[in-house]
Amino acid sequence: MVEPYCRSSKKLLFHWNNCKNDNCDICAAVKKSDINQSSVLKQDGQQQLNNSSEQDASKQSTILTVSSERNQLSLAESESLSSNINDDSTSPAAVCELLLSVFRTMLSMQECVAFRRSHFFQPISICELEQYFAVKMDDVMRMLGYCCCRSLSYTVMPLPCRGNPSCFIRRNGYYYYYKKIVEVDGKCNVVKYIYCRKCFNEIPEDMIIDENSDASDKIRKEKFVMLKNNQAIYETFVTCNICSKKWHRICALHHDGIHPEGFICEKCRIKKNITLPKNKFTAKLLPQNKMSVHIENRVNKLLRNNKADDKEVIIRVLSDCNAETEVKPFMKARFCDSGLMSDTFPYRSKAIFAFQIIDDKEICFFGMFVQEYGSSCPPPNSRQIYIAYLDSVKYFEPQNLRTTVYQEILLGYMEYAKSLGYRTSTYFTRKNGTKMPYFNFRFMKVNIWACPSNRNNEYIFYCHPLEQKIPNEKKLQEWYKCLLDKGIMENIIVDYKEMYKHIQDSHFTSVTELPYFEGDWIPDMLESLIMELKEGIQKRTTDVSMIDGPILAHTIQNNDQKENVTVSQDVISEKQIFEDALLHIKKHRETYFVAILYTNKVVNILKPIHDFDTLISCKLMRTRNHFFSMAKEFKWEFSSLRRTKFSTMAICYRLHKCDMESIAICAKCRIAYASWHCTFCEVTKSCYP
After folding, report:
1. Alpha helices in 448-520 (DSSP H)
2. Beta-carbon-side half-sphere exposure of residue 171 (alpha carbons within 13 Å)
3. Tell me, what's the pLDDT at 10?
4. How confident is the model at residue 444 (pLDDT cuts 50, 70, 90)?
5. Per-residue pLDDT band at 385 (split at 50, 70, 90)
6. Does the pLDDT at position 527 exceed 70?
7. What confidence score (pLDDT) does residue 457 get?
8. Which GO molecular function annotation, any one, does this entry have (predicted)?
């Protein structure tokens, strides 16, 4: 008696038996496998024919049984399968999964071995053939009204280790994990403890102290569990309101906030003649300011000159807020408390992003966070700019202008920053005879740290494409030099130098003359340098005390920690700190550039000025860390073009809705569809009537 097949198997056998296309990519491999299996069975039967006639009859009956089973799929059964097409077990997606499993098994057992043993064919991996199969099946699924045949999961990213900030748990790497629920202000927050195996084993005690709580709050190491960094999170689906077919949310580019009426697939929209509502939450509808207009016009002019008029670029300043750089503890105790240096440096933090429309959808391909220290900022940061973060993804078109456009955005920003100031009534005459007004320029220098990112430590965009090349330190330095040389040719930059040469030419004699920016490597270097010098002096003092006698040693060891810090810092000379810092800067002199916007002769006529653009307050873009954390939480990946389109759409929606629930917006000066803080009036508790 023939055992019944499941519905999915019946559908597969029905297609196999009734397919009239000899070149069908779906069933060709299965037919080939069946022929090979039949030939093997016949050979085995022929060999055992003389030994046992009963076994031969059994094998022949097996072959006949397979043939009869294939003929049992009648037309009525095929209609029944078609009527149950929406059932999970017989859906096209389930059939694709079944075909894919058969395809993988066949490859691993037959084709892969044949390709690798053959001397006439190049070896082909299973992944390449599987990709070929998936592409073919995508076309079939689209004909049936689905998005694709694939089960897609988000990229498994490296996890940061709690034991060492520079340590990461790679994909498929093992780590120790513990989760604790902490109540803060009536809300329960989940605190995760993640350690790589090396850092976990280096902890000498059986207890792990939480650095964010009391010393008595300890976690036993036995409570940690070992996990593998391979947990896949699959993309979510949306269901069509008409045909009830499932699409990947990213394939459908559907956002519930943008289209609250629900999702309607493309096939149903064409069939019912339904027009998709216009997206009111795009980057182009975000408000502009003078800086974004200046950079955008410059970049689009470049594209027009290179016959790429249809590749328009959209530039927006997404955040422009006031912030402060606080001097770190050791540096503050040594220089700020004595009045040699200010303990805070105010600046304006700006987030500048670039967008482009590809396939009628916006993508974000460039981002930059800058710090602008104005004329009111105390030295040494006065009138300086620091490019804190700069990042890009490779989806800009045309590809041959990608590097040129990146450089044009930076040069456009420097050009605007250089010309930012009050216009005077005095004119000067250019060589060509045109008269130009003098400006009281605001910024003197632009500081650039040429430090490339890596796969474990990304800058702005979460999860770059794996095929995107990351420049090494040497190539990145050459890229910045090419940029600055171009700025000199266009009279945007007067000159540029390495930081070490700039210090020598400026005749600096103290670390208080070095720029002190938020997130820069110089503050961290100075802090660790002072700490090392302090520990070295304390060690030498303790050794001398032990020689003098046990009573003196006991007295010094029981001194208060603050008294030790004071004594050590009195011994550490300012000259010694500067000389050691200069050695570190000399070692990394090729990674730090100082672009000079104009000569020192102009410095004497500079006057206090204010920025023309109004402040833009946006929690999402206030800092790079906050934006990156949000992107990581909501899976705003830039690993592929389809995910970049969805991530850009979600980011733009969040920008339009930024702070709408908690901040009252002035109705008089608000731009349509934008919920930004009012900077023109003092109305804060209620909207303008």
Report:
1. 473-489, 499-506
2. 7
3. 59
4. confident
5. very high
6. yes
7. 75
8. histone acetyltransferase activity
Q: Cα 200 from chain centroid?
A: 28
Residue 504, pLDDT > 50, answer yes
- Taking residue 162's Cβ as centre, other Cβ atoms within 10 Å add up to 20
The amino acid at 85: I
pLDDT per residue as tens digits for the range 319-371: 999 999 999 999 999 999 888 899 999 999 999 999 999 999 999 999 999 99
Peptide bond into 165 cis (omega under 30): no
Residue type, 296: E
> Which two tokens mark 374?
């104005």
Instruction: Report the distance separating Cα 315 and Cα 283, nearest Å.
Output: 9
Q: CA of 666: how far to CAs of 657, 663, 686, in Å?
A: 15, 10, 8
Cα 128 to Cα 47, 90, 125, 142, 567: the distances in Å are: 38, 27, 5, 21, 67
The percent of residues in the chain predicted with pLDDT above 90, rounded, is 42
Radius of gyration from C-alpha coordinates of the chain: 34
3-state secondary structure of 276: coil
Peptide bond before residue 346 is cis, with ω within 30 degrees of 0: no
Q: Are strands 445-449 and 592-596 parallel, antiparallel or unpaired?
A: antiparallel
SS (H, E, C) 150-200: CCCECCCCCEECCCCCCCEECCCCEEEEEEEEEEECCEEEEEEEEEEHHHH
Q: Which pLDDT tens digit goes with each residue over 546-573?
A: 444 433 333 333 444 444 444 344 457 8
Give kind and range of the element (H or E) at residue 116. Answer: helix 112-117
CA atoms of 605 and 440, how far apart (whole Å) = 7
Task: Label residue 58 by pLDDT band (50, 70, 90).
Answer: very low
Question: Sheet holding 592-596: strands in order across?
Answer: 313-326, 344-358, 361-373, 384-392, 445-449, 592-596, 495-498
DSSP states along 23-47: T-TTTHHHHHHHHHHHHHHHHHHHH
Cβ-based neighbours of 331, under 8 Å, separated by 6 or more: 341, 511, 523, 526, 527, 530
Long-range contacts of 110-116 (CB under 8 A, 24+ apart): 110/33, 110/36, 111/29
Contact 420, 495 (CB under 8 A): no
Structure tokens at 367: 């981002």
Strands 495-498 and 592-596 turn out to be antiparallel
DSSP assigned state of 21:
-
What the chain holds in terms of domains, given with CATH numbers, is 7-143 (no CATH), 159-228 (no CATH), 237-272 (3.30.40.10), 283-324+344-518+589-635 (no CATH), 521-587 (no CATH)
Listed residue (464, 615, 524, 488) closest to 328, CA to CA:
524
In the 8-state DSSP scheme, what is residue 109? I
